[in-house]
Specification:
Layout lengths: L16 H19 L5 H8 L3 H17 L1 H11 L2 H19 L4 H18 L2 H10 L3 H12 L2 H16 L1 H14 L1 H8 L10 H4 L6 H5 L2 H30 L4 H8 L2 H15 L5 H21 L3 H30 L4 H11 L1 H18 L3 H26 L2
Helix pairs in contact: 1-6, 1-8, 1-9, 1-11, 3-6, 3-20, 4-7, 4-19, 5-6, 5-10, 5-11, 7-8, 7-19, 8-16, 8-18, 9-10, 10-11, 14-15, 14-18, 14-20, 14-21, 15-18, 16-18, 17-18, 17-21
Length: about 400
């Protein structure tokens, strides 16, 4: 039986209800469970006296929890679909936001974020991508649509959460986010994911078939791609969490800093639209050859920025590249290794990249405290993006046999 024959029948259209429902779920889920985290750092510092490093360790714990569960979650989805996992993950995220709003102790905060990380692993990122690749006829277009609009999560969530924190206080703002999470992603996932399936054609037959992960992990392309993904994860997560305090350190007001951050979403959408219309077949491998160098340029702009125009230039360049590379990361896996076992393969990539991905916010916080400013840290991140660019070129060349 050929690999093509083993693929599940894809019954959904790339512009249908499944794709738009996943898009809505991802916008609200990423906003509630990730992007708004920096807005709670300052008020929690004022309430408890916890340091930036203390707070970022919670995010690191959450990311580690997410990645440690990536392979088993991916295997479950490949065999059973994501209806149960995404619904439960969204519910767990909402419950943890409620508990976060009542937190009083640092150890409890860490426990809550361990569970939030699991909720992210069950309902965000690779999971909806696995749903699309297994169920949508033109999965590249489907991934492009979900990614186009999911990138608006930070643009929508950060300003709204900022207003909520300022007007209601951080505890009540979290309760509001919990309500959004439970009424939005949980309900949407429960409804739209009925009838979807995993990437293994027949769950009963799939249990007898060997997992493609060991074979894939023996290829050079997997490890080159793992390095490139690790760099993208490390840099993107570091910047997303630390860019707000960085801009405040360089003299921008919080309103102006939030205004700059809000540009990332539209820039990401613009980049993905360019990919959709200009790149033949929406090829992730072809797009990555342009966008990894662009990410390096954006990092250079951030290192040099000292005023609002400089930060806006960074936001457009970096936001466009980082947003498109999220699509590249998802589509390149399918282009190189095929869609069978997609969930487990992307889970393996997340797992082998666990240290750079999970330690990013905490490591940058430590380096910032060590150097006394963000300036040297930004040059380290700039060098890392160069390494990621080289690794991606090698992965693409290995795939093409160059």
């Amino acid at each position: 039986m050929s690999q093509t024959d083993r693929q599940p029948s894809r019954a959904f259209k790339p512009n249908g209800m499944l794709v738009w429902g996943l898009t809505l779920s991802q916008i609200m889920g990423w906003g509630a469970l990730y992007h708004t985290f920096p807005l709670y750092m300052k008020p929690m510092q004022e309430s408890f006296g916890w340091s930036v490093t203390d707070l970022n360790l919670a995010l690191t714990i959450g990311l580690m929890s997410c990645d440690l569960a990536a392979i088993p979650i991916g295997r479950w989805i490949d065999r059973n679909g994501a209806h149960l996992t995404m619904t439960l993950g969204s519910a767990l995220g909402g419950i943890m936001l409620v508990l976060w709003s009542q937190v009083e102790h640092l150890w409890a905060f860490y426990g809550i974020w361990m569970c939030i990380g699991l909720a992210q692993g069950l309902s965000l990122g690779n999971v909806p991508a696995a749903v699309v690749t297994a169920n949508v006829r033109d999965y590249r277009r489907g991934l492009a649509y979900v990614s186009f609009f999911s990138s608006l999560a930070s643009t929508i969530a950060i300003p709204l959460a900022s207003v909520a924190v300022t007007s209601l206080g951080w505890r009540h703002a979290l309760l509001l986010q919990a309500a959004v999470q439970l009424c939005g992603p949980m309900c949407v996932n429960f409804v739209i994911l009925r009838g979807t399936r995993g990437s293994m054609r027949d769950p009963a037959q799939a249990k007898k078939e060997p997992s493609p992960v060991p074979r894939v992990m023996r290829t050079k392309a997997f490890w080159y791609l793992a390095v490139a993904c690790s760099v993208h994860w490390f840099v993107a997560m570091s910047v997303s969490i630390h860019v707000l305090p960085l801009m405040l350190d360089r003299g921008l007001s919080q309103d102006m800093a939030v205004f700059v951050i809000a540009f990332n979403g539209p820039a990401s959408v613009a980049g993905r639209l360019l990919m959709y219309f200009l790149v033949p077949g929406n090829s992730g491998l072809l797009t990555g050859r342009f966008m990894f160098p662009m990410l390096t340029l954006g990092m250079l702009m951030l290192a040099l920025a000292t005023s609002l125009p400089g930060f806006l230039a960074y936001a457009v360049t970096f936001g466009m590249a980082a947003g498109v590379l999220m699509v590249v990361r998802q589509t390149s896996v399918a282009e190189i290794f095929g869609t069978r076992g997609y969930g487990a393969i992307t889970g393996a990539l997340a797992t082998v990249s666990i240290v750079p991905r999970t330690m990013a916010p905490f490591t940058v916080a430590l380096l910032r405290d060590y150097f006394g400013s963000y300036d040297p840290v930004l040059w380290i991140l700039f060098a890392a993006t160069g390494l990621g660019t080289i690794a991606f070129y090698l992965a693409a060349a290995e795939h093409r046999g160059e």
